[in-house]
Amino acid sequence: MGVNYIMRCHGCKAIWDLNLGYGLMAGERKNIIKCFRAQSKARVKSMIEEATVPPYGFAYRMCRCDECGEILSVPSIVLGDKKFLESCPSCHGQVVLLDEDINKISCPKCKGKVTIETTSIWD
């Protein structure tokens, strides 16, 4: 199941709209592959071709871009020690996974406290 969150910084008032998780369509490999950019599709396909259980390690996960500093959600595959995160859609920089514990996340712009609110659930 997917969840939409609004994350807000109390310091600089930055706002991020994040879709995290996955929906029912992720039950098929071809649908997962479609979520990634053309240059990533071959790598993703090879990662999930032998995985036996949907959603094959797929989810939109909360990340921070090392280049532009934005917080965003990107399609990703995590299978044990194998990991692939799509690059930042804005600047194409490398992204890093953020801790799922919101209390451990600070604003990448001002280092202020952030809060997160669930706005909807999607499938």
Sequence-ordered SSE layout with sheet pairings:
Blueprint: E1 2-9, E2 15-21, H1 29-34, H2 38-48, E3 58-65, E4 71-79, E5 82-85, E6 95-97, E7 114-122
Antiparallel strand pairs: 1-2, 1-7, 3-4, 3-6, 4-5
What does this protein structure show overall?
This protein has 123 residues and is mainly beta. Helices cover 14% and strands 39% of the residues. The chain has helices at 29-34, 38-48, and strands at residues 2-9, 15-21, 58-65, 71-79, 82-85, 95-97, 114-122. It has a four-stranded antiparallel sheet with strand order 5-4-3-6. The chain starts with a strand and ends with a strand.
**Shape label:** globular
Give me the count of strands: 7
Q: In whole angstroms, how far apart are the ends?
A: 5 Å
- H/E topology pattern: EEHHEEEEE
What fraction of the residues are assigned to beta strands by DSSP?
35-45%
Order of adjacent strands in the largest pleated sheet? 5-4-3-6
Low-confidence stretches: none
Averaged pLDDT, please?
A: 92
Specify the oligomeric state. single chain
Number of domains: 1
Helix count from the secondary structure assignment = 2
Structural class: mainly beta
What level of helicity do the residues show?
10-25%
Radius of gyration: 15 Å
Largest β sheet strand count, sense and barrel closure: 4 strands, antiparallel
